Amino acid sequence: MKAAFPDIEIAGNEGGNYRTGAFEVTLDGKLLFSHFEQGSFPDSADIVRLIGENF
After folding, report:
1. Which of 18, 27, 45, 55 could be cross-linked to 13 through a Cys-Cys bond (beta carbons 3.0 to 4.6 Å apart)?
2. Where are the alpha helices (H) located in 1-55, listed in sequence order?
3. What is the C-alpha separation between 4 and 7, in angstroms, rounded?
C-alpha cells in the first residue's frame, strides 16, 4: 500500500476497539471494507483499489 500511496498512514486496533476475526478498512472515517459484511479477507490489490476509488 505504501508503494501505491506513499503518504498513507496505517493503524490497527485504534483505541483498543477490536473484535476477534474482524478486519475492516476505513478511510477518513468511511468504511471501505468489512470482513463481517463480505465474509472474506481482501488481498492487497483489493485494498489498493478501494483506497484509490475513495481517495
Report:
1. 18
2. 35-38, 44-54
3. 9
Q: Of 1, 44, 8, 46, nearest to 27 (Cα)? A: 8
Residue 4: all three cell numbers together:
501505491
The reported pTM is 0.65
Tell me, what amino acid is at 19? R
Chain centroid to Cα 4, Å, comes to 14
pLDDT in tens, 1-55: 778 888 877 766 666 666 666 788 888 888 888 888 888 888 889 889 988 898 7
